[in-house]
Amino acid sequence: MTSAEIKKIEGIIGYTFKNKKLLVTAFTHSSFANNNHTQSNERLEFLGDTVLSTIISERIYADMDYDEGQLSKLRSKIVSMHPLAYLIDGLNLIQYLQFAGASRSSITDNMKADLMESIIGAMYIDGGLEKAREFVSHNFFDMIKKMEDLDDLEDSKSRLQEMLKSDSIKYTTNKTGTDHNPTFIASVMINGVCMGRGQGGSKRQAETMAAGEAIKKLTKV
After folding, report:
1. Is 89 one of the catalytic residues?
2. Which of 5, 63, 89, 117 is catalytic?
3. What pLDDT tens digit does each residue of the chain (221 aa) get?
């Protein structure tokens, strides 16, 4: 890897490495390392996975009033292979990966996800947790917000239905605000009794938040 490529990578990720060898190692796939008798990014990937999970855990713990199981599920979605690969593609970093392959098209999403974790691991070693946290916050913010608002909440209605296994669940939803900035307020009724309310930017979000509140009441000891 040339010094010019290193400088371009640092410009993309917004961090200048004190130890350039760490950055080079982060971009070295095991296939390339084995052929060239050098160190691969596998150890950095291992470390980066832990650092990323810690940072994401901090964020969603602060943002969401979820129980332990829901937090674990949301974290798993955020740090899974496809979101990490998507971010690598968005940053256009895969072009710098050193690997033994005839074509860049042979690079898998798993290799891209490993690269993201390796970058975070290298940044943690070189600059500490705060620098790694800045990188994750900057690049993961939109994805985290989207998953907090939609993906993990989608299971609440299904979970409530599974818990009760009845047709006694009814939702009522009202819309306020403008068409460009609507607010939906939902209530969930169980056997005619209001057990939960929710508010959100979509009907689905409001109803699933209402279902989540109902689940908390039903499972409260």
Report:
1. no
2. 117
3. 899 999 999 999 999 999 999 999 999 999 999 898 999 999 999 999 999 999 999 998 888 777 787 788 888 888 888 889 989 999 999 999 999 876 777 888 899 999 999 999 999 999 999 999 999 999 988 878 777 654 444 567 887 888 887 778 999 999 888 777 778 899 999 988 999 998 877 787 788 888 888 888 887 64
Catalytic residue among 45, 49, 126, 207: 49
**Three-state secondary structure string covering the chain:** CCHHHHHHHHHHHCCCCCCHHHHHHHCECHHHHHHHCCCCCHHHHHHHHHHHHHHHHHHHHHHCCCCHHHHHHHHHHHCCHHHHHHHHHHHCCHHHCECCCCCHHHCCHHHHHHHHHHHHHHHHHHHCHHHHHHHHHHHHHHHHHHHHHHHHHHHHHHHHHHHHCCCCEEEEEEEEECCCCEEEEEEEEECCEEEEEEEECCHHHHHHHHHHHHHHHHHCC
pTM score: 0.68
